[in-house]
Amino acid sequence: MTSSKNTPSSKNNDDMPGYTIGTFAMINKISARMLRHYDKIGLFKPQMVLPNGYRYYSSEQVPTISLIKKYQRCGFTLAEISTLLGASATTIKSLARKKQRQLVQQNIEQDQANELLSNLLGIGHTPLPSDNVIAVTQQPARQLLCGSNVCEDNVDAGFDDLYRALENAQVHPDSLPLLLCDPEAAVESYRVAVCAQQGTVLTTLISHSLPVGTYISTSHYGSYDGIGVAYDRLLQYAQHHQQKLVMPFIERYFLDRTYTTNTNDYITEISVKMTP
């Protein structure tokens, strides 16, 4: 991960060339290692590479990385995705039909992939669009019980461990599940958490406090593939209003895998504290 001095999310400097690879990876739920691999094979390159080797990405690139992730979940190879990114609508539908036939022939149980492929053909369930609303609210101080820091591949396992520890201690959380996301973290950017009553202490979990203050928030509807758009919305709002952000970002899950198997039904709120 990059250091805070190179992270646009905590700065409001119009001269910054874009998002560092660490920030871009975090808001799009993809590893920096994978972004470097995409750059190496020519699939998805940063908008700018400085002489010191630092990679920077732009807001305009968020929809493209979301599309790449969706194509991967459909079962397309990186070589096929490279073709899809520059293909016409007719070619995309042709390749989608071919991929559906391959899945049937191989008898692969990929219900989610088939649903995404149907969306590419224009016959599937359409995710709820984001309303693009930014809310500014005053939030009280909140005490959290947290698991250890995890990487993006281990978030679900982290939540399982967290709720197992709470159940063993007979502690009932006071909130929906939360994910703390910090692009400035040195190694692993994510920490699973729940709100707890003041004074609750468990030796197996980490206590953490969210400070009182002004928070901005927005909602994301649907799978996490396109969640980078919501993060970008918050970051652009803060920059436009010349506000600095206090890490971490906070994801709150109103509807997730616990309640539905259809990722298009997911509802996620993202918030972050602003400095006074």
CATH 2nd-level architecture of the largest domain = Alpha-Beta Barrel
**Oligomeric status:** single chain
Helix content: 25-40%
Q: Any idea of the CATH class of the largest domain?
A: Alpha Beta
Mean pLDDT, rounded to whole units? 84
Rg from C-alpha positions? 20 Å
Low-confidence stretches: 1-13
Distance between the termini: 27 Å
Pfam family, one: MerR_1
Domain HTH merR-type: 18-87
InterPro entries: DNA-bd_dom_put_sf, GyrI-like, MerR-type_HTH_dom, MerR_fam, Reg_factor_effector_dom_sf
Protein name: MerR family transcriptional regulator
Observed structural traits:
3 domains; single chain; DNA-binding; MerR family transcriptional regulator; 276 residues; eight-stranded antiparallel sheet; Multidrug-efflux Transporter Regulator, Chain: A, Domain 2; Multidrug-efflux Transporter 1 Regulator Bmrr, Chain A; alpha+beta; 8 helices; 33% helix; MerR-type_HTH_dom; disordered N terminus; three-stranded antiparallel sheet
What is the compact description of this entry?
The protein has 8 helices and 11 strands. The protein is α+β, with helices and mostly antiparallel strands.
Description:
This protein has helices at 21-27, 32-41, 62-73, 78-85, 89-105, 111-120, 155-168, 228-240; strands spanning 19-20, 48-49, 55-57, 135-139, 142-150, 178-181, 190-195, 206-210, 213-221, 245-255, 267-274. The strands form two sheets. Strands 4-9-11-10-6-7-5-8 form an eight-stranded antiparallel beta sheet, with helices on one face. The radius of gyration is 20 Å and the shape is globular. It has 276 residues and is an alpha+beta fold. The protein has three domains: 4-57, Multidrug-efflux Transporter Regulator, Chain: A, Domain 2 (Orthogonal Bundle), CATH 1.10.1660; 64-120, no CATH class; 135-274, Regulatory factor, effector binding domain (Multidrug-efflux Transporter 1 Regulator Bmrr, Chain A, Alpha-Beta Barrel). β6 (178-181) and β7 form a beta hairpin.
